[in-house]
Amino acid sequence: MSIPTQMSLAGFIVSISDLQRTTGGGDRIRLRVGVEQWRHEADDTFTKLDPTYHDVVAYDTAASVIGQRFRPGDFFVASGYIHEYEIDQRGGSLIKEEFVARKIGHNANQTTYVVQRRPPHAPASAQRAVQHQPALGM
């Protein structure tokens, strides 16, 4: 069986729109992001180039997470897909693209953070045993 994968995008947030409601009642947020570019030189060094800038959109849970946890300047890694769409302009139409982020998190290679884990859960059999123990002194 092959490993299921999705397209990913790693970059930094330039700007974030306010959380909006879609006509269907879900959440949507739009981002402008930068992606760092590097050129591999013949002498095995790398030269940093100007970043490229792109549009990102997220819906529902991913949109809520971005609205709560991300700010301009944050580095991220997102998985999702590219959506192409057409806009009408004077003199014709233009094909544009945006990255649709289904999942997103801070980039651990660029970000210092603290992980707050949920408390571990006891196995279901242990939980049932605790619930059914008689009270002491009865």
How many discrete domains?
A: 1
In CATH's first tier, which class applies?
Answer: Mainly Beta
Oligomer: single chain
Examine the secondary-structure arrangement and name the CATH architecture: Beta Barrel
Rounded mean pLDDT is 89
Strand order of the largest sheet: 1-3-4-6-5
The amount of helix comes to 10-25%
Dominant shape = globular
N to C succession of SSEs: EEEEHEEH
Instruction: Evaluate the radius of gyration.
Output: 22 Å
Relevant CATH superfamily: Nucleic acid-binding proteins
Percent of residues in beta strands? over 45%
Gap between N and C termini, in Å?
56 Å
In terms of per-residue confidence, which ranges show pLDDT below 50 for 5 or more consecutive residues?
132-138
Number of helices: 2
Strand count, sense and closure of the main sheet? 5 strands, mixed, barrel
Structural class: mainly beta
CATH topology-level fold name:
OB fold (Dihydrolipoamide Acetyltransferase, E2P)
| Secondary structure tally: strands | 6
InterPro entries: NA-bd_OB-fold, Primosome_PriB/ssb
Region (Disordered): 118-138
Protein name: Single-stranded DNA-binding protein
Keywords: DNA-binding
Quick gist of this model?
With 138 residues, the protein is mainly beta. Helices cover 13% and strands 51% of the residues. The protein has 2 helices and 6 strands, in the order E-E-E-E-H-E-E-H.
